[in-house]
Write a structure and sequence with these properties.
The chain contains 16 helices and nine strands. It is α/β, with parallel strands linked by helices. The strands form two sheets. It has a seven-stranded parallel sheet with strand order 1-4-5-6-7-8-9. The chain has a two-stranded antiparallel sheet with strand order 2-3. Helix 9 packs across helix 10 and helix 9 packs across helix 11. The chain is globular, with a radius of gyration of 21 Å. The termini are far apart.
């Protein structure tokens, strides 16, 4: 070959690397097997996590980039999952915005001064990206460490955040929340409007720092009727997804006990709808029109059963997930603290083999 020929016929460029499995499944693209990750995969079920967290308060751990990085990486190293999820808590942006909240071991978030009227809402200030620079630092560190493994960022949905602020902590019936929603809709919408902006800033900071996807947790929305969800919740969840902008990364929307709300949750604007264990994935796919990828939905309690029980459930769920245009394998809620980490690793290996 002459020099002139070498110039006119340069070597063919290498084909681009395919996107990570999770991102392709989230877009409804064909994949060889479902990607798999677990809600609460970074946390209490891992002995290395308990050792690292010893003596450190939850909120302190969530605001220390080196700790966040190491805890987020632990399940990726141990289980070989297809995505990491940022180690944090849904109340972190509320605390960063100045609200007095503590995460009490064995209880959960406890709010010093619960919200009850318009005056309380008026005191809530917005969240500035500078308030959570430590979160951005942690995300940048993680993206550098993870390489091709995508990082999922997350936030709490406005309704779930509001329920904590109104109830003062975890609640079984969310009675005060529903009472305020119906008796003072002006106060309600003002509160959720502010919380939507806070959640939007929180996820936007994560995406700008390099997160490949986000998940919006509406953990307590399953206690609502479809009519109440449509009127009092949906517009504000839509606001969070809309704030991600036209170049948004794939977004997942998840709630517990939301089988009757799945299509409304899809309308909020996510690419993927998370499903808990209460309805089969193929039924969920039909309820959201058969055009939207799903995530889920192994009952976390089954991980404590004998392996043949777990294996049969995993195989069933993967089969049901094929009815949707895309399926991300996950649990129907978070990993229970008493779960044997070895079982999680076997579940990942099984899903990859299917």
């Amino acid at each position: 070959m002459t020099p002139d020929q070498a110039i006119s016929n340069p070597p063919a460029a290498a084909p681009p690397e395919p996107e990570p499995l999770l991102l392709r499944a989230a877009k409804g693209e064909q994949v060889d097997h479902p990607p798999v990750w677990f809600m609460r995969q970074a946390g209490r079920s891992l002995p290395e996590y308990r050792e690292l967290r010893a003596g450190t308060r939850m909120l302190e751990a969530c605001r220390t980039p080196d700790l966040v990085t190491e805890i987020t990486l632990q399940p990726v190293r141990r289980h070989g999952v297809d995505a990491a999820i940022l180690f944090s808590d849904i109340v972190v942006p509320l605390v960063a915005a100045g609200l007095d909240i503590e995460i009490v071991p064995g209880t959960g978030p406890v709010v010093a001064s619960p919200i009850s009227d318009a005056a309380d809402v008026s005191k809530i200030r917005g969240l500035d990206p500078a308030d959570i620079e430590d979160i951005a630092v942690a995300v940048r560190q993680l993206v550098a460490e993870l390489g091709d493994v995508p990082l999922i960022g997350f936030a709490g949905a406005p309704y779930t955040l509001a329920s904590y602020l109104i109830e003062g902590g975890p609640s079984k019936d969310h009675a005060r929340t529903k009472a305020l929603m119906h008796s003072r809709p002006d106060v309600w919408h003002a509160l959720l409007g502010k919380l939507a902006l806070i959640s939007a800033v929180f996820v936007r900071v994560q995406v700008d720092a390099g997160a490949s996807a986000i998940q919006l947790f509406d953990s307590w929305a399953g206690g609502l009727s479809a009519a109440d969800y449509a009127e009092f919740v949906l517009p504000h969840s839509q606001g969070v997804f809309a704030a991600l902008g036209p170049a948004a990364v794939p977004a997942i929307h998840f709630g517990v006990g939301t089988g009757e709300l799945l299509d409304l949750m899809r309308r909020a604007g996510a690419n993927v709808v998370g499903v808990d264990w209460r309805i089969p994935l193929d039924v969920a796919a039909e309820r959201i029109g058969g055009r939207t990828p799903v995530q889920g939905n192994l009952d976390p309690a089954l991980l404590l059963a004998d392996w043949p029980v777990v294996e049969a459930a995993v195989r069933r769920i993967v089969a049901e997930g094929r009815r949707a245009p895309g399926h991300i394998f996950n649990l129907g809620h978070g990993v229970l603290p008493e779960t044997d980490p070895g079982v999680l690793t076997r579940v990942v290996e099984l899903v990859h083999s299917l």
